[in-house]
Amino acid sequence: MDMRERLRPFGISFEKSLEDLIKGIRATNNDNEKLNLFMEKAIQECKTELKTSDLELKSTALLKLSYLEMYGYDMSWCSFNILEVMASPKFQHKRIGYLAAIQILQRQNNDDALMLMTNLLKKDLNSVHYIETSLAISGIAAVVSKDLALDIVEDMSKMLSHSKPLIRKKAVLAMYKVFLKNPEALRVYYDRIVEKLDDTDSSVVSATVNVICELANMNPANYIELAPRLYAMLKDSNNNWMVIRLLKLFSSLSLTEPRLKNKLLPEIKSLMVKTKALSLTYECINAILDGNMLLSDDIDTAQLIVEKLLIFFESNDQNLKYVGLLAFIKTCKIHQDLIKKHDKIILTSIYDNDLTIRETSLEIINSLVSEKNIVPIVTRLTIQLLPYKEQQQHLDEINKKLTELEQEGSNGETDDQHVIGSTQQPIVVSEKYKYLLINKIIEICSMNNYENIPNFRWYLGVLNDILKLNIENKISNVDKIISQQLVDIGIRVPSVRSKLVEMCLNLCGIPEKPEEELLLFKNGLSNCIWIIGEYYDEYIQNDEDDSEDEENSDDESKNSIDKYSAIEIIDSISKQEFLGRLGYINFDSTITIYVQSLAKIFSKFCIIFGEGSWSTSQFESAKLLSSSIIKWFNTFANSPNFEIQERVLSFIEVLKLVEESIDTCLETIKASDEEFEYPPNFLMRGYNQLFSLSTFKPVGPKTQQKVQPPVDLNLDETFDDQSLINFHNLYNRLKLEDLDINFGDDEDIIAGEELEEEEEYEDDDNDDNCTLEFEDGNYDDNGTATEKSSIMETEKNKNKKNMHKDDPFYIDLDTNEEKLLNSKIKTEKHTKKKQKKPLKPKKYKKEKVLLIEEEEGETTEKSDLVLSKHSNFMIDSSRLADLDLKQAEKADECFANEYKDEEEPEDVVQQNTKIESFPALPVKRKPKKKIKKKVAIIE
Q1: Which ranges of the sequence are coiled-coil (predicted)?
Q2: pTM of this prediction?
Q3: Which of 14-28, 629-643, 667-681 is predicted most confidently?
């Protein structure tokens, strides 16, 4: 070892350097196990090196540990070694020590090390070498804590007057970190910070503006008085970065002082016109928007902003496009007219190759959609749901027509179905973005009561295409939101119900569909079958839709021949085996809706026949349909889902009565030799009225607010005074019983174990009688026990009084109260002795006491726990934001308050410890016997 130390000054070292460590990590990077072993070995080597007295070796070890700490290893154990290297007179060692402190102590909670570091930091701050002072300021800014800020703030303030501009600049920036930990220091040194705005060095002034800008973001009202000086700097400064910080500062100040905008807005607009830097242009626009300087009637400023933003969209830099789009959206929210005028910007952003730009553009697309452009916009959005390979085929058709339009040129407005803008390219998107697209398509199509939908057949086709694409995409919850949209359309648009039922029949697997596709649409089946049941009669009778195209109506009339009858629908549903499995799931309500809808289909089927006379074939068709429904309902008669079971059994009995009435009509036809007979009143006037008495109507989201509450409604008034009195009596009685039980337990402890054992043997002979007496509930109005138990309790009390006659700490009870308490305790004991089980601690009493303590303790402990887990180096600006510089306080009081805040938690802990007291004599508690409750189980 001595030879190694002698050779080290000549550059000969046998230990691994940081370079060797990095090479070793890269060599084993492919194998995680080898990499972990290598790092563990390196840490052990560093621990060995830290035990030496050679500072050169220690500094190298700390350098390697700082590098390994970035891999997630806990290096807080070497905090004192860091202090040792920081105290080295050699600057190279000191720099490594500060680097390790910034790297390790910043992430770990090392209050002990920071306490020892305070004097070292003060020494380095006042060093004659300004490089060491600069190093100390950097370390303070990184590791400053609340205690350290209180001790170091005075020394840091002296550095604001240092002769070197580097030190003054770093001191100003470090003071901001000190203010975050010690907000009251801002009152004392605020003027010293403001003085640096007049510093001779521009870098110091820029640093001061940065600090004031950050402080103004928290509480702008404190810095309004600086507005004239800052405004002069804004006009005179030639440094773009200084101007950008001033613009950010003024955007915060103008929120507190709106009168500033009259002075600032012309100057900011002048900067926008003069400058060619896009960064400064964007900050000017952002300052106007964030500072609420743009009003709805200020058209000139809005046009200037949009004119400058167009430069961002013409750039090939995606970052410029994104920030430009954000500013454009903010501007359009104030001036809605600009959206229609510059719609190409948003429409082009919808299908931009950058996914972030696409998502951002979707926020404002609602204001852009109209009846003319909704079809191409939805088409563009729907194409993004396609797989990547299939997108190109559809985009080629759109881009081809787009190119033709650009070659021809547009003379005025065009009614083309394709959006004018840049060509769209295929892109791979995530499921989250696809789900966002689907919600946005539904939102823009359904807004304002579907006012932008040109043709509902087209919209139903879009929803159907989305469901087909979801078979491959398999995005969860899509089937539910699409089916809810179908229900809303069915309620609001009567003319499209026939087409809607046809679509729902296909979605429900009628007549035939693979079971895998049906399971993917499981969450939407209930809504679709509800639509079928609700509008089945319109599906059969109505052949028209909302389309004005004659060809489409002709095609629809041809397809009307292929409509499915009710019997075919029931047969198809009965063949779907997975529905039978759903019916035996407790928390699935799909079959519940199926049962209701099939019963409704039977009603609609009978309504189609009319209330006039029916033929024999019509009666037989109705009976056949009823039998098919009853047969399918019987499969769920034993369902564990009680709601399904109840509905099925109810409808089975009702349909059986319907069949009996139909049989009666058929017998009447045969007996009278007539071909027609009126349907039974039970069916037409009874059963059908369950479903056709009223129709569903759309309800607005704010309709409930329009309902006026009754004038005489008083929610504070009791409905029944006697019930309230009974409740209070019951509550007081239970509260008294709890007190009795707790008090009785204390008496048992005082009495001792021997007396309890004697009572057990005495009471065993009379266990049966006592148990029967108390189980029969032989209590009088005052809650006392029977006469026999009263005599036993009296004897027990006499024994206790004789036993504790000379005990000064024993408190004797009143006769009546003692009689009441002891009788209840005795009752509980007799019931427990009936159970021949091992002794266990009484759970009821423990649960109740622990519950109260946990509730109070959890809230206190939870808040303390969060505070303890918070690192001292995490920036918390809440206290600094609440600071008001206008309130004059003395500096001594400020710092005294800081120390007082630190001492208060200790006082609280001491007070809390005084509340609890321990018993003078340890008494062993005998566990109580648990009462077994008798429960009747229905088998």
Answers
A1: 388-415
A2: 0.64
A3: 629-643
